[in-house]
Design brief:
Length: 127
């Protein structure tokens, strides 16, 4: 079991994405970088990102230079999305996610975002 937003968690997410055929098919050869900024986590704010390119995707802690999109969220919103209790579209439409950057590029890869949730849905995570 990995702690949400920890180094172990991002490594498990990366592995899950690389092994999930649905995500791999949906992301294809996309070049996409999504920066996440999560406020008020138990250990303070956490920045992490998803970087996809050349058929591979990596989740890591830290800041991604040149990210296409930046997503700001509270810890509670991040947990609800991770648990599958809140989908990203609803979170965005209700103002729980603040998204900036190239929204058109993000929307082009909506299928990959949906498959991402499926790919990591079975991870054993401590919140």
């Amino acid at each position: 079991m990995s702690k949400f937003l920890s180094e172990e968690w991002v490594n498990e997410v990366t592995t899950a994405l690389s092994e999930h055929q649905g995500f791999k098919n949906a992301i294809g050869d996309a070049d996409l970088g999504i920066q996440f900024s999560t406020d008020d986590a138990p250990d303070g704010g956490v920045d992490y990102y998803l970087s996809a390119g050349e058929g591979n995707a990596t989740m890591a802690l830290g800041t991604l230079d040149g990210a296409d999109v930046t997503v700001k969220q509270s810890y509670d919103t991040a947990v609800a999305i991770s648990k599958g209790e809140l989908n990203t579209q609803t979170a965005f439409m209700t103002g729980k996610l603040k998204v900036s950057g190239n929204l058109a590029k993000l929307m082009m890869h909506q299928a990959a975002i949906m498959q991402w949730g499926v790919a990591v849905g079975e991870l054993d995570v401590e919140y």
